[in-house]
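QUALITY CONTROL LOG
STEP: pairwise intake check
CHECKER ROLE: data steward
CRITERIA: each record must contain a sequence immediately followed by its structure tokens, with no blank fields

ENTRY 1 OF 2
RESULT FIELD BELOW
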Amino acid sequence: MKKLAITLCLAITFAVPIFAQGPTWTTSTIQKYNGYDYELWNENNQGTVSMKLTGDNGSSVGGTFTAQWSGTKNVLFRSGRKFTNTSGQSVDGGGQGKTAAALGNISINFAATWSSNDNVKMLGVYGWAFFASGSQPSNFSNQIEYYIIQDRGSYNSATSGTNSTKKGSATIDGIAYDFYVCDRMGQPMLTGNGNFKQYFSVPSNTGSHRTSGTITVSKHFEEWAKVGMKMDGPLYEVAMKVESYSGNGQSNGSATITKNLLTIGGGSTTPSSSSVAPSSSSRPSSSSVAPSSSSRPSSSSVAASSSSRASSSSVASSSSRASSSSVASSSSRASSSSSVAGTGGSSSSNASGGASSSSVVAGGSSSSTNASGTSSSSAAEVSSSSEEDLSPILRNRVPVTYFSIQPLSDKSLRIEISSPAVVEIFDLKGNKVEKFNISSTRQTVKLSSPSGIYFAKVHGMKSIRFVLK
């Protein structure tokens, strides 16, 4: 009987998934977790906040989280996907990022419960995009901050913003939306302060507000273009967001996002595990730095810039128990610079059904665009070469559905993978520098390359950026 009990105990132990439990944040932080870009931003880190990451790799609930806040002035929680860095370059190692149209269908299936004592509060899709070079309005930057509101308080940011202009309307997903453009002048954006446009889709009737359903994000982009609200440059970000603003340090509330399934290009996607491409002027921070005070209108006249945050750097650390680093942020709230996988933290890439290196992971059509918005010919996306296909491991390929790496201090990589595969290492110029046949689900390999920033790549998975110390 004791032997049987021990056997059962071992079986239960080994049946536990290898995914790490999600971290809980109490200060402003940006981090990758199970393939989604998560962010907590709390202005001046005022009051008390908590954000627990509860999401999976997109196969069941996606980028979910729970949040509580009290005594705050302006707090924002979001989870989704960043496609480019703040210059519009792909996060997977150079080259111009893809436009929203080039990425194909984008939608979010979501469910949430939330409450807040503020009138200035929003639940919905949020992100940034760019005008194509030279096509931005005169005296404005090439950056666009956009909102697709699903539920809000009594304050309507779309109609109350500076120079608010209604551009049109359309019925999308069974809901009548009005489209607005507002101006933000000298306000925080992706790269410091400046002038930029805001785009809004807001339900025409408050009776259409909702806290669950499917949002066909790409359909909003298409309808916006028809009325002159163009986003003809790269798409920077799409995320599900909860925000609460009081302006007086008296905000209180809670939110639980129970579903946040992001779909890109026709199938359920796992967002890329790569972070924003590193720049020479930005290094990962070794400690959490509170953001400086954001420029906000008074509580009696609130403008709709509530969700932009410029961070000076961040550290990607998917599938890790806690963030290996937080974000030094300036006065706006959209990630402004680079991030790389930090030493000691693990990064991961997830897929379902062994998709190719296209953006589609499960149930979608194959495409030449990967989930990070770069073409299949980009530096780190060359794993489908004839050399790789000659590997005995890949002749009888079993689809890889989980791939994680953790850089160690002795120039080793700890690799966790769901099935045997070839792992290739590329430098930032796209040169393949090392290659490993990984035959077990957990294996440590020694690298001979010099210290620096590299990409790890497995056929059918997104590349993972890491720092080799």
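ENTRY 2 OF 2
RESULT FIELD BELOW
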Amino acid sequence: MNIDVITERIPNRKAKEIYERICRQATVSKTELLEQSGMTVSTLTRLLEELTSQGLIRESGFGASTGGRRPILYEKNSAYAYVFGLEISRTLSKLVLVDLGMKKLDARSWTMTAEMTPDVLIHLIAEEANWMLEQHQINKSSLLGIGIGAVGPVDRLSGAILEPSYFPAKGWKNVEICSLLSEELGIPAMLDNGANTAILAESWHQRTQSFKHLLYIHAGIGIRSSMVSEGKVIYGAVDMEGSVGQMIIQTDGVPHRNSSGNYGALESYASLYAIEKAARSALKQGRSTVLSHFVEDPEHLTYTHVLEALQKNDPLVVEIITEAATYFGIGLANLLNILHPEKVILGGPLIAGGELFFQTATQVAIRKTYYYPAYQVVFSKGQLGEEALAIGAAVMVMDQLVRL
């Protein structure tokens, strides 16, 4: 199903402009909209009436008086429609159902095991989506569609997941995920890489704030990045979501786990793989650590074990995490020196694992950032946590309402 059916819900260009202005503010008066849009009173009045009659916006009380009658305030009607947001990552996939205020109504996650092929996951998603609609008594006519934030590289235009690395299950190459889900659910589907959908979610959540240039980095099995400027995702010639992990920070460094990767690449030092590798190596060397109580075979050690040891303040694990975070901070400083974002949002398992990684990485980055302290940057873990990718996928669909 073509996404144009979403765009055509608001056919008038000027109506789209007014709707977008209302969406980006909690509430707004007609006077404020007149000042912001430069439209005539008659044109704005007509557009507000059209949007209200369609159910897209609603009156939300009165503003403060400036001497005359109190102005009517308008806000987006979050119950006008609903959207599914889907994250497809290497470790888990998550489906959320949200309204147009991005309020989460329901959610379901699946662990990405060796059995979780595309066919299996799509079947589970379809079952769960239909169950959610039934539980919340939502008719499919009220659904805008489903947005998908997936591990890259992806082809946004064709809606295909191309050749991602390190999926536990087979079959995740050249998957026409949009057409498959659209056919299964009977609704439009859109695709982007997960880093882009995550930053869309965070940007939308902070839409009333003054930050114009946001950088997002997701640190997990690999390192993924995206950037928003003036509310728009910046795209390159091809989907380069995971390329930041190939940043060379040591030219004669360790070889990448993938033969096509760079020697001394950032993700060889700062990723789940790198931390697990360092911990396993330490166990094999006989280093003193509580990790030795968790597994008999060092090769069975996982990041979950590392986090458990970190909570016990194990000196070896603190050393490993600090070293990985230091390398990550060096890579982050390189990005700051090139892109100069106002705010950097960090997400992913390495960031969620505790304060040590986040604090170490950001402190290293600040020390190595040129023009500091004249150039100030804000670091954040984001407001939406690990649901940012799925919610951002829903934001991507919602944004089609105002697309020209």
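INTAKE CHECK: passed for both entries
DESCRIPTIVE NOTE, ENTRY 2: The radius of gyration is 23 Å.
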